[in-house]
């Protein structure tokens, strides 16, 4: 509604009933609210404004719902202008635009010259109060009709009675299961009249279709939504399971079909408007009427509902056109049956779309192909697109047949739609036009490179070959990043359900990492077994109506992508064996991000774990840690693994045997002094066995330029046994010499002197040598 006093002052006073809220403009100042104008029901709006204070208030049905004050004072409205209902004036009484027209019904419009007090407002608010305005009166004013506006007279009861039930009649034949599904699809249930008045009204509305609805095969023509299947004679609502509040009028005194006939129909002919029970067979088909507490909003979704589309997004079931219920858009388009097709027709421009059902009697609810006529939303004449018509609102998904399921059940690997459409086309990525898989994502922070979070889980070390200085690692590598160019669809809390399809993976950018010190030319890959998952971040936002299917959209700046794969790689490691077999080795796994230079993206160490057994055959696995290697052109990260050798085997198989061999060789000093051969054979045999151990051990270890601890041990052991053999030979030589006594005396004296010297200098001489000489001395002395 608008009031203009000249071509230049065409917006002196204006009232807008918009989808986003009720708004009033006074000389360029706006009073706004979020009050939505109710659909298919009456409401009383009041706007109060004080010229002296610039305060305003908005009332809905007598209750104050918004208030405020203009920042500047206004002037009184000048008389002599033009007041228009249903249009915004762009000049005095003219320059109307079709898309600015009001579609609806208005009554009892009054304007007072002063702000009404609370008591008067309470009297004005009720429907049909009869109070008239002092400045503009609905009753006394003279209105001129122009264009498509028309006067319609109605009773106060019709206008003021609040809507408690919406009834829609579908004059086509359906089986009972189809009738139940149809009513569910349009947001209602199969009607069961709740009073004699409603029953009579229903028959009056459907009697002209009774022959068509019965198929000419009997008196039954209209399904009613009640059954006594559970308990004979106890009729309950099919949808709710609650007892029917009103029963009758029956054909005869009561139902007469017994337990074989448990469904309910309305009759025509001699028993017009009466009820009868009937068998619940799908071979029967009749018309159906659906009821709901409020008119259900039916949403149109798909490529034809872009930002500037001439088609409405919301519709209500309305009057019949060409024999079937039509869908009336909220603003400027209708959907109706015409010449064998369902048509969407814009009332603003010459644009439409049509759909031909596969057989007679089917309605356009659900997802179907439509053919575009005219240029709209970037589509051309004759283009075929999928459009969806359903009552499914926010947080719901429309099955192909029009039924609604929870949107979280979409693509969850479980069938929830009867037609299985909830598990079809489960793409998780919305890739914008112009997206390039060659160009990496922009960084989330413009002042720093894009972080690629690095997660490694080492599963096993199948081989650790000391002699070759290599080891093989089985590891799971995960890379996580954000791509703000993408949006993700219908993500679940369970990230295993957010697996991208191979096609989606092929069409997005993924990082590439080189296994730097692994044998071969190994890079991260997307071969068999690879997974690319979406990791849900922040909350979702509803998908745009131009999408043919409902989706929850997760922005790419809040959610992440994670690529994971299992690898088996052989690495070289410089084993330092000086303390073998009591050594520990720290080896590294180096990874280099080669997708772009470090100034564009970097590897960020996130987590490194080892999930295999701690104790292997030869090694004990220690801690695993990560570190970033600085100063490289490409971001490089190192993973360090500690191997501690398990030395029990060497103690049992090497150290203890060598000690025993030394003792055996030393024990030859206690053999019979005259049995030189036995003493020498035992000592030499010990020396040969020890030499064999040395050879065997050396062959299993890498050749090093430095001595290993085990080499020193075996060498010293060989020297000790060699000295034993040498002493045995000297002793035997002394005994058999002609001047043996002298030699023996000289030998003992010399040996004693050496022993005393060693005792004096024992603090600076190797204790092992000192011990050996003492043992030799006392052995010879005793003998």
Keywords:
Mannose-Binding Protein A, Chain A; 11 helices; 19% helix; eight-stranded antiparallel β-barrel; 783 residues; alpha+beta; seven-stranded mixed beta sheet; Jelly Rolls
Descriptive report:
With about 775 residues, the chain is an alpha+beta fold. The chain has five domains: about 1-160, Jelly Rolls (Sandwich), CATH 2.60.120.200; about 165-290, Mannose-Binding Protein A, Chain A (Roll), CATH 3.10.100.10; about 300-390, no CATH class; about 450-545 and about 550-645, Acetylcholine Binding Protein, Chain: A; about 650-780, Methane Monooxygenase Hydroxylase, Chain G, domain 1 (Up-down Bundle). The protein is about 20% helix and about 30% strand. It starts with a strand and ends with a helix.
CATH homologous superfamily designation of the largest domain: Neurotransmitter-gated ion-channel ligand-binding domain
Termini gap: 135 Å
**Which of globular, elongated, flat, extended, rod-shaped describes the shape?**
elongated
The CATH class of the largest domain is Mainly Beta
User: Biggest sheet, strands in spatial order?
Assistant: 16-17-18-19-20-21-22-23
Tell me the count of domains.
Answer: 5
- Biggest sheet overview: 8 strands, antiparallel, barrel
Structural Rg: 48 Å
Question: What is the correct CATH architecture of the largest domain?
Answer: Distorted Sandwich
Structural class: alpha+beta
What is the CATH topology descriptor of the largest domain? Acetylcholine Binding Protein, Chain: A
Poorly predicted spans: 739-745, 758-767
Query: How helical, in percent, are the residues?
Result: 10-25%
How many helices does DSSP assign?
11
β-sheet strand percentage? 25-35%
**How would you state the average pLDDT, rounded?**
85
Q: How many distinct beta strands?
A: 38
């Amino acid at each position: 509604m608008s009031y203009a006093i000249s071509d230049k002052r065409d917006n002196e006073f204006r009232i807008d009933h918009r989808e986003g809220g009720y708004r009033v403009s006074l000389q360029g100042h706006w009073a706004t609210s979020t009050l939505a104008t109710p659909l298919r029901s009456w409401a009383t709006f009041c706007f109060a404004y004080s010229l002296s204070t610039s305060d305003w208030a908005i009332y809905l049905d007598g209750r104050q719902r918004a208030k405020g004050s203009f920042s500047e004072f206004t002037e009184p409205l000048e008389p002599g202008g033009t007041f228009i209902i249903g249009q915004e004036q762009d000049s005095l009484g003219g320059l109307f635009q079709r898309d600015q027209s009001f579609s609806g019904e208005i009554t009892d419009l009054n304007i007072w010259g002063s702000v009404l007090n609370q008591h008067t407002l309470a009297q004005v608010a009720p429907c049909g109060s009869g109070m008239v305005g002092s400045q503009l009166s609905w009753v006394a004013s003279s209105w001129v009709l122009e264009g498509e506006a028309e006067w319609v007279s109605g009773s106060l009861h019709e206008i003021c009675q609040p809507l408690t039930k919406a009834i829609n009649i579908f004059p086509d034949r359906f089986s009972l299961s189809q009738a139940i599904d149809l009513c569910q699809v349009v947001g209602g249930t199969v009607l069961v009249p709740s009073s004699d008045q409603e029953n009579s009204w229903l028959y009056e509305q459907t009697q002209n279709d009774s022959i068509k609805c019965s198929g000419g095969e009997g008196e039954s023509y209209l399904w009613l939504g009640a059954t006594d299947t559970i308990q004979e004679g106890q009729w309950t609502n099919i949808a709710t399971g609650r007892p029917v509040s009103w029963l009758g009028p029956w054909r005869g005194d009561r139902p007469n079909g017994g337990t074989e006939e448990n469904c309910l129909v309305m009759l025509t002919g001699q028993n017009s408007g009466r009820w009868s029970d009937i068998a619940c067979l799908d071979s029967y088909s009749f018309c159906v009427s659906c009821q709901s507490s409020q008119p259900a909003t039916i949403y149109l979704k798909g490529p034809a509902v872009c930002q500037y589309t001439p088609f409405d997004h919301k519709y209500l079931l309305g009057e019949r056109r060409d024999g079937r219920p039509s869908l009336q858009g909220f603003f400027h388009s209708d959907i109706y049956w015409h010449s064998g097709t369902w048509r969407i027709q814009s009332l603003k421009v010459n644009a439409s779309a049509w759909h031909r059902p596969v057989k007679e009697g089917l309605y356009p609810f659900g997802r179907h192909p439509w053919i575009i006529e005219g240029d709209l939303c970037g589509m051309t004449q004759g283009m075929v697109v999928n459009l969806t018509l359903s009552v499914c609102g926010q947080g719901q998904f429309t099955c192909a047949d029009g039924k609604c399921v929870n949107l979280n059940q979409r693509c969850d690997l479980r069938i929830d739609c009867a037609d299985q459409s909830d598990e079809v086309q489960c793409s998780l990525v919305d890739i914008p036009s112009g997206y390039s898989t060659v160009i990496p994502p922009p960084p989330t922070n413009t002042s720093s490179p894009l972080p690629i979070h690095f997660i490694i889980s080492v599963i096993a070390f199948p081989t650790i070959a000391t002699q070759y200085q290599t080891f093989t690692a089985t590891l799971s590598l995960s890379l996580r990043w954000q791509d703000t160019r993408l949006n993700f669809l219908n993500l679940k809390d369970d990230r295993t359900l957010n697996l991208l399809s191979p096609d989606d993976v092929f069409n997005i950018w993924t990082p590439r990492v080189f296994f730097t010190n692994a044998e071969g030319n190994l890079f991260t890959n997307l071969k068999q077994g690879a997974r690319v998952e979406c990791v849900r971040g922040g909350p979702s936002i509803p998908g745009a109506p131009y999408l043919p299917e409902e989706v929850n959209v997760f922005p790419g700046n809040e959610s992440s992508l994670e690529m994971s794969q299992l690898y088996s790689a052989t690495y070289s490691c410089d084993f330092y064996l000086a303390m073998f077999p009591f050594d520990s080795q720290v080896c590294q796994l180096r990874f280099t991000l080669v997708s772009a230079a470090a100034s564009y993206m970097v590897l960020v160490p996130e987590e490194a774990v080892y999930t295999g057994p701690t104790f292997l055959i030869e090694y004990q696995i220690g801690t695993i840690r990560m570190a970033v290697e600085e100063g490289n052109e490409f971001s490089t990260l190192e993973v360090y693994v500690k191997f501690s050798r398990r030395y029990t085997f060497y103690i049992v198989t090497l150290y203890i045997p060598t000690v025993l061999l030394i003792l055996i060789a030393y024990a030859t000093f206690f053999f019979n002094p005259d049995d030189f051969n036995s003493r020498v054979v035992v000592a030499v045999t010990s020396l040969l066995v020890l030499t064999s151990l040395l050879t065997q051990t050396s062959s299993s270890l890498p050749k090093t330029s430095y001595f290993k601890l085990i080499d020193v041990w075996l060498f010293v052991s060989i020297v000790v046994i060699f000295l034993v053999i040498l002493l045995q030979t000297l002793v035997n030589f002394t005994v058999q010499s002609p001047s043996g006594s002298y030699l023996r005396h000289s030998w003992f004296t010399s040996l004693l002197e050496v022993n005393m010297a060693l005792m004096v200098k024992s603090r600076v001489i190797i204790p092992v040598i000192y011990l050996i000489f003492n043992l030799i001395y006392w052995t010879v002395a005793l003998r």
